């Protein structure tokens, strides 16, 4: 049996292409808390309970939020 010469293509991604981050897009929990009007401890509680705005871990310790994720969270009215 001869190997097929068909090329396997990967399906197109369902995610739109990401824009590069601009300075100030990725913020720490202090600034995120100020924007949302909550305490830093509230953000930490939300992360522990797996609720609240989406966050990213940078390395093993740094927690950062995208401003756009905070806007989505505010617009959703969910906490």
Straight-line distance between termini: 59 Å
Structural class: alpha+beta
- Report mean pLDDT, rounded to a whole number: 82
Report low-confidence residues grouped into runs of 5 or more. Answer: none
- What does the largest sheet look like? 3 strands, antiparallel
Following the backbone from N to C, one meets helices and strands in this order, namely EHHEEH
Strand order of the largest sheet: 1-3-2
The Cα radius of gyration reads 19 Å
Structure, explained:
- Strand 2 (56-58) and strand 3 (62-66) form a beta hairpin.
- The chain is α+β, with helices and mostly antiparallel strands and 79 residues long.
- It starts with 25 loop residues before the first strand and ends with a helix.
- It has 3 helices and 3 strands, in the order βααββα.
- The radius of gyration is 19 Å and the shape is globular.
- Strands 1-3-2 form a 3-stranded antiparallel sheet.
Short summary:
The protein has 79 residues and is α+β, with helices and mostly antiparallel strands. Helices cover 34% and strands 13% of the residues.
What are the key terms here?
single chain; 79 residues; alpha+beta; three-stranded antiparallel beta sheet; 3 helices; 34% helix
Task: List strands and helices in order, with pairings.
Layout: E1 26-27, H1 29-36, H2 40-48, E2 56-58, E3 62-66, H3 67-76
Antiparallel strand pairs: 1-3, 2-3
């Amino acid at each position: 049996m001869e190997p097929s010469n068909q090329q396997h293509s990967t399906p197109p991604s369902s995610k739109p292409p990401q824009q590069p981050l601009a300075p100030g897009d990725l913020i720490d929990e202090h600034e995120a808390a100020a924007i949302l009007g909550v305490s830093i401890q509230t953000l930490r509680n939300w992360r522990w309970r797996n609720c609240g705005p989406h966050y990213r871990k940078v390395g093993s310790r740094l927690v950062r939020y995208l401003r756009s994720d905070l806007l989505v969270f505010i617009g959703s009215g969910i906490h």
